[in-house]
Amino acid sequence: MEIHDVIQGSPEWLALRTQYDTASEAPAMMGCSKYQTRAELLRQKATGYTPTVDRAKQALFDRGHETEALARTLVEELIGEDLYPVTGSLGRLLSSYDGLTMDERIGYEHKLWNETLAAQVRAGDLEPHHYWQLEQQILVGGLEKVIFVCSDGTRDNFVHMEYRAVPGRAEQLVAGWKQFAEDLASYQHVEVQPAAVATEQPSLPAVIVNMGGALTVSSNLPDFGVALRSYIKTIPAKPATDQEFADAELACKNLKTAEEALQAAEDRALAGMTDVEAMRRVVADLCALARTTRLASEKMVEARKIAIRDEIRVEFSKQAADHLINLNLRIGKEYMPSVPVDFAACMLRKKTITSLRDACSQVLTDFKIKASAIADGIQVNMRYAQENASEYGFLFADFKSIVLKAADDFQSTLTSRIATHKLDEARKDQERKDREAAEAKRVEDERIAREAADAIAKAATPAAAAPVAPAAVVTTAPVTVGRRYVSAAPASPSQPAAAPAAQPTLRLGVICDRLGFIINAALVEQIGVEPASRDTRQLPLFHEHQFTDICKALIQHIETIAEMAPA
Known about the structure:
Layout: E1 2-3, H1 11-17, E2 21-22, H2 26-29, H3 38-47, H4 55-79, E3 84-90, E4 93-100, E5 106-112, H5 115-123, H6 128-141, E6 145-151, E7 158-163, H7 169-185, E8 209-211, E9 217-219, H8 221-233, H9 242-270, H10 277-331, H11 343-346, H12 353-388, H13 399-402, H14 407-460, E10 479-481, E11 484-486, E12 506-507, H15 508-515, H16 521-526, E13 533-534, E14 540-542, H17 546-564
Parallel strand pairs: 2-4, 5-6
Antiparallel strand pairs: 1-3, 3-4, 4-5, 6-7, 8-9, 10-11, 12-14, 13-14
Helix pairs in contact: 7-12, 8-10, 9-10, 10-12, 12-14, 14-17
């Protein structure tokens, strides 16, 4: 917080306030002030107009300052610390504190005594008219709390409460001032019209009907008729302003009075005569004219009221729609959802055009703040996605929907989907590698089988004559087993790989199919390959990897036999 060296109430202080958005203006900006509408605050800041302070209001201000000083002493006793009036700012926000402690932890705000406010303080539940000012004071000063006091400067009428920042309100306040600044920048001044008062209208002449003794009728009905018709022409045919509505409504009341006067005159005349048909026809005609015109004017007034409400509603609805369009342009994508706004509801029980427009203006402001906050959240999520998921756009066909999530939920969604995708890709890659490994093993097995078959065929072919060589000492004698020759030392197949955990499924018949010739279980065991298990018929079962061991052992076995065979 920046401290300003000004005395509160001085011309310098008043000049300083015009350069900032003050805490005392916060309730009006939020549309919650009892003394000023948001539209009035906009006009004041845009035009620089400052309402004149009359003598009565100045006296009230002086009384407030006096009681504020008296109550400050009571608060100092309460908290055990001195308080000093301070004016400070944070950015464009300004707060004038009735008192701050030296360490700027505790603030003090005083309001003049009234029973309604005192009841709120006792209950510890302030209305928005007061708490928005306190929220700005806490925000600007970074305060721990504000001691809010309602008193007349005496101990008898002195109530207080501690106000601490409510989560979420500071964000609402900042968003409100942001929207206010945008509205102020685009403000177009419209002269405020005073409250409408019906224009004084010419009175219709009194209705006079006298009955003579000879059943003659003397009256001013012709003159009254001329005056009535002239008066009707002055009634606004299509009122559009509060002034014209007031004039039309007064005219309807005067026409009603004319109806009643005509009927009363007729009744008085009839009391003195029996047959005054001509007079009665004139009275009936004039009465009908007054009544018809009155009813038409009443319907016209009511219709214009409805039409003007519709025009205002349509005008502000268009502004709301334009705001959504502008937000989509700011975002760069049409990601903005439909944000509900009800202008019709806020117009209920509003009587004047000014009050209708002020109510709609406040609803529009709340709508803009809410919509802008959504747009801000969308942009935060879009930046995160651009920085962390730009390569995975294909995973987010529903991006328009999920981008509306809160930042934490959105980031969690992106992280989860990307992690799932990576796991799936790793699984697919491993499956591909497994398929390639299986195919390579199949090819290798086929190669080994072919080599075994070639070795067997070669051994079966008679050896070519070879030159006589000196006798050699045979260290290992061949052993005859049936018709097969095997080495004295059993073949040593390559070290088998560790048996997998899977059950053995390779049968001897499959091995023979792969080799292209028939071998039996005894031969397999003779060359040093033991079956992994046996089935229910005690037939041998081998692991798939043992096929390679069998082929290699056969090759070694055949080569040994070939070497030992006689020339």
